[in-house]
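Section 5: illustrative case.
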């Protein structure tokens, strides 16, 4: 059985790590290079770096900062934000990223998923999907959750897989930063319908939430930010409790 992965997320704005609630009210959470080094040492399985304002500000991901973070890591490193071309991905991979995450650009130009998968391999392409439950329907949102679309979460997730993505990072905007648990019903539906790994994001508040997203949400990995950044949950303790609950993790 494949081990379940624990992934801290560095949301980056103006070169600093930030964290908010429901994608707004951001507060400073520390230096990304220092945090990356600490997570690699403390047992994180992977690290995700999201330049959350790159798309809105119509600029590229901060390649120099990516390089500085990558130099601290000995674990897989995914980078996202402002990526819209093969050239963008090439720069980030050369600066130390192992995988890239695309979101708004994939919706605006779905062929980009095919192009990146063909060029770099599906194992390197993560498609992030931010979605909100509106009157019972999960709708995809773009530009850091600021722009709603008519795209259905589950239909889009299936298309993403068909186009060659190797992994999906699903963030529930309703759960983001609330610390009330992950969107496990939606996660379970995505996981059952797809054959690629699904990363759960949005809502981690306590250790039980991670257990539930692996058992009820059928997630392959769980991503969190503030509970790790502010030391509310230690990764090793989390993994020990997950293992006690019968969930396979790497320690």
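Designed sequence:
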């Amino acid at each position: 059985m494949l081990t379940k992965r624990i992934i801290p997320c560095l949301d980056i704005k103006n070169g600093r790590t930030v964290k908010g609630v429901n994608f707004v009210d951001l507060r400073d959470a520390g230096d990304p290079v220092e945090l990356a080094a600490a997570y690699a040492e403390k047992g994180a399985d992977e690290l995700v770096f999201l330049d959350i304002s790159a798309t809105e500000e119509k600029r590229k991901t901060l390649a120099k900062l990516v390089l500085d973070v990558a130099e601290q890591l000995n674990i897989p490193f995914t980078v996202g934000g402002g990526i819209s071309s093969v050239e963008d991905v090439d720069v980030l991979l050369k600066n130390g990223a192992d995988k890239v995450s695309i979101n708004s650009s994939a919706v605006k130009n779905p062929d980009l998923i095919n192009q990146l998968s063909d060029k770099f391999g599906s194992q390197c392409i993560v498609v992030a999907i931010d979605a909100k439950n509106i009157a019972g329907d999960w709708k995809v949102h773009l530009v850091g959750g600021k722009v709603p679309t008519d795209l259905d979460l589950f239909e889009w997730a299936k298309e993403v897989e068909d186009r060659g993505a190797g992994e999906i990072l699903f963030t529930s905007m309703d759960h983001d930063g609330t610390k009330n648990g992950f969107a496990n019903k939606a996660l379970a539906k995505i996981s059952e319908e797809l054959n690629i790994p699904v990363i759960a994001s949005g809502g981690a508040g306590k250790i039980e939430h991670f257990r539930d997203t692996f058992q009820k949400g059928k997630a392959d990995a769980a991503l969190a930010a503030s509970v790790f950044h502010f030391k509310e949950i230690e990764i090793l303790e989390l993994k020990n409790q997950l293992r006690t609950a019968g969930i396979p993790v790497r320690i």
